[in-house]
Structure formats: C-alpha cells, structure tokens
From TrEMBL:
Native organism: Paenibacillus anseongense
Listed transmembrane segments: 12-31, 284-308
Major localisation: membrane
Membrane protein topology class: Multi-pass membrane protein
Protein name: HAMP domain-containing protein
Localization, UniProt: Cell membrane
Gene3D superfamilies: 6.10.340.10, Histidine kinase-like ATPase, C-terminal domain, PAS domain
Classification via Pfam families: HAMP (PF00672), HATPase_c (PF02518), His_kinase (PF06580)
Entry keywords, A to Z: ATP-binding, Cell membrane, Kinase, Membrane, Nucleotide-binding, Phosphoprotein, Transferase, Transmembrane, Transmembrane helix, Two-component regulatory system
HAMP domain location: 306-358
Taxonomic path: Bacteria, Bacillati, Bacillota, Bacilli, Bacillales
Length: 581
C-alpha cells in the first residue's frame, strides 16, 4: 500500500518549489535588467549634463554677441570722440567682468583702445593681435572666434572679434573670454557629478577643464591623450561615444558633443573600472539575495502549510483589517470550496475599491497641475510685453546712452523669467528681479520710482514663487501711479507674524475704492481688458492658494488717494524645508 502524503506536506513542497523558482528567475532577470539600465542611465545622464553645458555656452555666446553689437553701436555714435569711446569701453567691461577678460578696439597698426585697467595703460601694438585683425577683416559680416592662445594681458583666452563696418579707419571689436569662469563652472560639475569634463577645439586643444581631475588622462601643452589615442584621434572618431583603455589597461568611456554656437566639442571621460566595480558588488548582492530567497521560501512554505487549516480565521482577520481602513490587504485561499470563492470575490472587491480611489486621486492631481500650468503660462507673456515696451520707449526717445542699461536689465530679467516657473527662488532673487524691472520703468516713463526694502533678518533666503513680486510692482506703477503719470516710492516689506510670513508691496499712489477691492482678485473672463490688467494678481493669488491652501494668498488694503498695500501671505514652515540660496 502506497504511503499517503499529507496535504500540509504537499502544500509545503509545492509552495517551496514555486517561491524559490520565482526568486531565482526574478533575481536573474532583474540583475541583467539593472546591469543594462545602469549603463544606459549613466550614458543618458552624462548626455543630459553635456546638453546643459552646451546651453550654458549658447547663453554666453549670445551675451558676447550682445557686447560686440553694443560696442559697435557706441563707437559709431561717438566715432570722433575717443574719450567717450574709452569711457564706454571701460563701463561695458566693468559690467561684464564676471565672464570676459577684456573688451577693446584693435586698430590697423595693432594698437588698441582697451576696457580693462591693464590695456587702458599699455595700448602698444602687439603682434599676436595681427591674426585677430586679419580674420575680422576677411569676415566682415560675421563674428570670428579664435583658437585658445596666451594673451599678454588676458592670459589663456579665446577672442571673439568683429570688423567695425562703416568706420572711417579700419577697426575691429574684440572680446577676450574669461576661460577661468568657464573652467570654474566645469569644475563645479566635475565635483558635484563626479565627472571629468572639458571643452576641446577641433584641433584637440583644451580650452577649459580636466586640470583639477586628470584621472586616466595624460595632459601636455593644452592637449591630452588616453593610452595611445590622441585628442585629435578621439575627435575624428565617428559617433558620439567610444571605449578606450589607458596605458595601464583601465577601461574608460568617452562621450562627446559638438557645441551649437562655437566650433568646439564637449568631452566627458568616465572611468569604466568604477562602473565595473559597482556591477561586481551588484552581483555579490544578488548571490546574497538568492540565499535569502532560499530561507524565505522555507519560511513561507512552512507558514502556509501550518495555517492552511484555519481559513476561516484568516478571512475574518483580513476583513477586520479592511474594516479598519487597510485596503492593501489580500486574501488568497486557493481552494475549490466556499472559502476559495469568498476569498476571490473579496480580492476583486478590494481591487475595484483601490482602483476607484487611485483614479480619483490621479484626476484631482491632474486637475491641480493643469490649473497651475495655466496660471503660470499667463504671467510670462504679460511680463515680456511690458519690458519690450520699455526698450521701445528708450529707442523712440533717442536716449542711446540708456540702451545698454535697458538691454542689461532686460537680459537679466529674461534669463530670470525663462527658467522653470515651478522652481522656488529666494526672496533675494525676486528683489533683484524687481530692481531690474524698476530700472527699465524709470527709463521708460522718464520717472523715478524709488524702491525701498524693509526685509526682516533671515528672510532674504525665504523661498517664494518665481515672478511673485514683479507683477505686483507693475500693478503699483500702472494703477497706483497712473501708468507712470506720477512718480513715487514702492516699499517692499517682509516680516514674520506668528506662524506666517507676510511680504507686502506698498505704494503711495491713487489707491483703490473700497467697493472694488473685493473684485480685484476675482477673474472676469468676459472683460478681457480688465482681465489683462489684473492678470498678475489673479495668478499669484491662485498659485499661492493652490499650493498652500485657501487660508493663504493675497490681501489688498487701500486708502484712496493715500496708499495701497498688496500683501502675500505664506506659511512660515516653508522656511524649514525649502530654503533657497
């Protein structure tokens, strides 16, 4: 007579074999998947960094072009007044000294009119300027970018040069780039992201980078090599990525990307041994996971075999948990009887409930995000419209000397405004943006709107929405001071009061009638003109309430013909977990 195997033992063996097989299969598949994803993500992340560096260079290129055109306009306007040209070159250099080494004019005899202190004193002809002048003369309609070279007064630099068309004597406008500033940016990325980046010319010369973190590189005379492969061979290789080995046999991966505006390439060199060591540690981890899976399989099998005889108690316990609000519980009784039917029906019911809750949450979150996106998208075009109006008025009035001020402020405002609108900024950054905005309005209206700041200690770094203050200040000028018809002060006051932070914008203008205050923050889709004028306050009020609740937002207090105060109210605990630098 065959020996009978008990049902608990059968369940134990079946469950043990099933669970262990699943763990082995999942472990192997996940290991291969993670291995592939690590390499893919590493390459994707590196490409993202290279794209960011290229965007940074593109913005700088536009700034340098603006400087060249500004100098060209200034020189043409004062072609017979050398002292005025010197003064404007000095002022323009001092304004942009953070990322240029010098701004100057090259004469045909290779002497210069310089903006930096050294070249204002030593303006004698230098032979290293001849290639720059000749290049500008041959390319009179374009801007020429030199290869990196050692300048007597600017050090290791790259020069952007443009011929001054229409001048009675041959002149070229030149800007020496501050490569130290570019290199400092690359070093910050290298340190933060543990990368090895550099800018390389088409001939393999290092413009900036690599110096502080050579790694597998051999750097000589502003060029480099990896093993037996020179920089020129790296650049000549087709494709954007390649694998090489150092002289010691260590594997390295290289990614390269041509820049959009300069004839340069961005190179990233990563040590593959670090990635291989990480994969080796991952392999050891999965071996430990398999051992743990074996033990876990034994435990689960024993647990199921022991408690399979008590399905009713198990079902009752699970139902009690659901009654208490735990919807993630699952009941699995694989039996062809009433308990099996009941457990499957119970599971289906829970799945439907969880799915309904999930869909409701997704719907609410999507609706919230869409409302925020609509509110944010309404601010930027309105802001750009007003700043462009300021530039138009300056040009219309013929105040050429103020063009640089307006352009400088506009560049700062545009760089600030085109960033991610959902990103928090510090109150300090908002105040700087308002300062640039008021500078433009003072020139636009030919008025003096004085900006007064009363900021409580410690609140300069308080996190706020980008473009919080500028629409409120614009409202003060447009309504309080009759669109520039009168002038006055604008006070920005920030302080704590209990568990809230208040940021107030106060003007001494016309004020708002009491019966109209309650309608200011209410959108009126049917009245497009009124809506356009109040769009900033509507959006700011809506963004604050959507993010922090109905008890926060904007408040308006006004005494007609005396003063108006627009107050933004935030929770003070923002400062604890969302500090901006």
């Amino acid at each position: 007579m065959r020996r009978r195997i008990s049902l608990p033992l059968k369940l134990f063996l079946i469950v043990f074999a099933f669970v262990l097989s699943c763990i082995i299969l999942i472990s192997q598949l996940s290991y291969r998947y993670v291995q592939k994803e690590i390499r893919t993500n590493d390459m994707y992340y590196t490409n993202q960094i290279l794209d960011k560096v290229d965007q940074y260079l593109t913005v700088n290129f536009s700034s340098f072009q603006t400087i060249l055109f500004s100098v060209e306009t200034s020189v043409k306007a004062n072609i017979d007044n050398t002292e005025v040209i010197k003064k404007q070159l000095r002022e323009l250099y001092e304004l942009n000294s953070n990322y240029v080494s010098n701004i100057y004019l090259i004469k045909s005899d290779l002497s210069i009119l310089g903006g930096s202190m050294a070249t204002r004193i030593f303006d004698e002809p230098l032979s290293d300027r001849e290639p720059l002048f000749d290049a500008a003369d041959k390319n009179r309609r374009t801007t020429f970018v030199s290869d990196p070279y050692k300048s007597k007064y600017s050090g290791w630099t790259v020069t952007m040069v443009r011929y001054l068309n229409g001048s009675p004597s041959p002149l070229a406008i030149a800007v020496d780039l501050d490569l130290n500033a570019i290199e400092e940016t690359l070093f910050k990325i290298n340190k933060k992201e543990q990368m090895n980046l550099a800018l390389i010319t088409s001939s393999g010369k290092i413009i900036a980078g690599f110096s502080e973190n050579r790694g597998p590189l051999s750097i000589q005379d502003h060029t480099f090599s990896i093993g037996e492969t020179s920089a020129e061979q790296v650049l000549d290789t087709s494709g954007t990525s390649l694998q090489l080995h150092t002289k010691e046999g260590l594997p390295v991966s290289i990614l390269k990307k041509p820049t959009e505006k300069f004839n340069w390439s961005i190179i990233s060199i990563n040590d593959e041994s670090r990635l291989e060591a990480a994969l080796s540690r991952l392999e050891a981890y999965y071996i430990v996971l398999l051992v743990a899976g074996l033990l876990l399989s034994l435990f689960i099998s024993f647990f199921i075999a022991k408690y399979i005889r008590n399905p009713l108690y198990t079902l009752k316990t699970k139902m009690k948990r659901v009654e208490q609000g735990d919807l993630t519980t699952r009941v699995t009784i694989k039996r062809n009887d009433e308990f099996g039917d009941l457990s499957r029906a119970f599971d289906r019911m829970l799945q439907q409930i969880v799915e309904l809750i999930r869909r409701g949450e997704l719907h609410n979150e999507l609706e919230r995000k869409l409302e925020i996106q609509v509110l944010q998208s309404q601010i930027n075009p309105h802001f750009l419209y007003n700043t462009l109006g300021a530039i138009s008025n300056v040009i219309h009035l013929g105040q050429i000397e103020k063009v640089d001020v307006v352009i400088g402020s506009l560049i700062s405002i545009l760089e600030y405004g085109i960033a991610d609108a959902s990103e928090k900024v510090s109150l300090r950054q908002e105040l700087q943006n308002v300062s640039d905005y008021i500078a433009i309005q003072n020139i636009r209206y030919n008025r003096h709107f004085q900006l007064i700041e009363h900021i409580e200690d410690g609140l300069m770094d308080f996190p706020v929405f980008r473009m919080l203050l500028q629409p409120i200040v614009e409202n003060s000028i447009f309504h309080g001071y009759n669109g520039g018809g009168i002038e006055g002060s604008i006070t920005i006051h920030a302080y704590r009061k209990g568990d809230i932070v208040m940021i107030e914008v106060i003007d001494q203008g016309e004020g708002i009638p009491v019966d109209k205050i309650k309608h200011i923050l209410t959108a009126e889709p049917s009245d497009l003109e009124v809506k356009r004028k109040r769009i900033g306050l509507n959006n700011i009020h809506g963004r604050i309430r959507l993010h922090y609740g109905e008890q926060f937002g904007l408040q308006i207090i006004s005494i007609p013909k005396e003063t108006t105060c627009v107050r933004a109210v935030f929770p003070v605990d923002l400062f604890k977990g969302d500090v901006c630098g």
